[in-house]
């Protein structure tokens, strides 16, 4: 299901004011159901996991609980592995991949403490959008005093874990709608000209420039390559404007940019990006790519303490 096409809001060259944001919000219609698609599947996991509500938001009279799934036999002497999906609600495989991983996961070995948040941004999930109702991108605002309630709640959830978090993988997609809807919307919101970009065809990862872990990224890329194709560099040796530092890998300063994968002091961090609009893949294959990435990330983090 594609997001609505871009409709200009506000005055070109001028950042949106409160009235512009209200106009934009009024155009965001519910197009799928968080309770049906996500909460029912999370609820079904209670037989094998501990499920908790770690916060909630209410928008236009509708309450959206934030849900986390934990290993049942949690022990403080085990490393914590964090998986997050749905930071951007329109990036469907991040949500479904996290749920599929949980539904298949066998925790019988008790090697790790697993903490999974399948859908960080439920309002945006229902509207197939990147932003929350205040036109804020949660993935630029992961800090304790965040103006995005979705981001602040996740920061509070993870804060007590401290340096026990060994790995955090954040599941995302890059889609054609980034260019047809979301980047034009961002330019309009900020009162800037829209500059077209190039959508990479395939899966790639975002490492942390302040904590590069090339072997970890390679392990994830290698696992995903068995499921779907890896994005090549463009003619400039880049992916989405960033230099390719290894096949299928770019890097951002995660913490400085307020990105989800930078919340904790984990040694191993990455952001996945699949491309579900590619003619070379399917939505189901993209979900499987996310599952493969999670497994590879946990295995590498365990093998390289």
From TrEMBL:
Residues of the Peptidase M14 domain: 30-305
Q: Where is this region: Disordered?
A: 175-194
Q: Which Gene3D superfamilies does this one have?
A: Zn peptidases
**Pfam families hit by this protein:** AstE_AspA_cat
> Keywords in UniProt for this one?
Hydrolase, Metal-binding, Zinc
Give the family, as the similarity comment puts it: Belongs to the peptidase M14 family.
- Give the protein name, as stated in the record: M14 family metallocarboxypeptidase
């Amino acid at each position: 299901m594609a997001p609505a096409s871009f409709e200009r809001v506000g005055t070109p060259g001028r950042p949106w004011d409160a009235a512009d944001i209200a106009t934009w919000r009024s155009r965001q219609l519910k197009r799928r159901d968080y309770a049906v698609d996500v909460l029912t599947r999370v609820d079904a996991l209670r037989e094998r996991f501990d499920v908790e509500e770690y916060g909630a938001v209410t928008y236009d009279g509708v309450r959206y609980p934030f849900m986390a799934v934990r290993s049942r036999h949690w022990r403080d002497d085990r490393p914590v592995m964090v998986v997050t999906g749905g930071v951007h609600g329109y990036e469907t495989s991040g949500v479904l991949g996290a749920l599929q991983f949980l539904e298949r996961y066998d925790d019988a070995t008790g090697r790790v403490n697993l903490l999974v948040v399948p859908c960080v941004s439920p309002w945006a999930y229902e509207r197939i959008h990147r932003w929350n109702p205040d036109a804020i991108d949660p993935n630029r605002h992961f800090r304790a005093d965040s103006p995005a309630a979705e981001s602040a709640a996740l920061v509070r959830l993870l804060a007590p874990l401290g340096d026990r978090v060994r790995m955090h993988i954040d599941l995302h997609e890059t889609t054609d709608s980034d260019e047809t809807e979301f980047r034009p919307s961002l330019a309009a919101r900020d009162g800037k000209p829209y500059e077209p970009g190039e959508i990479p065809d395939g899966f790639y990862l975002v490492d942390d420039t302040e904590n590069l872990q090339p072997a970890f990224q390679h392990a994830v890329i290698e696992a995903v390559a068995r499921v779907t194709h890896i994005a090549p560099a463009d003619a400039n040796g880049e992916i989405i404007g960033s230099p390719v530092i290894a096949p299928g890998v770019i890097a951002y300063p995660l913490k400085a940019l307020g990105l989800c994968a930078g919340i904790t002091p984990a040694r191993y961090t990455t952001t996945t990006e699949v491309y579900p609009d590619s003619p070379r893949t399917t939505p189901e294959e993209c979900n499987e790519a996310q599952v493969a990435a999670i497994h590879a990330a946990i295995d590498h983090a365990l093998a390289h303490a």
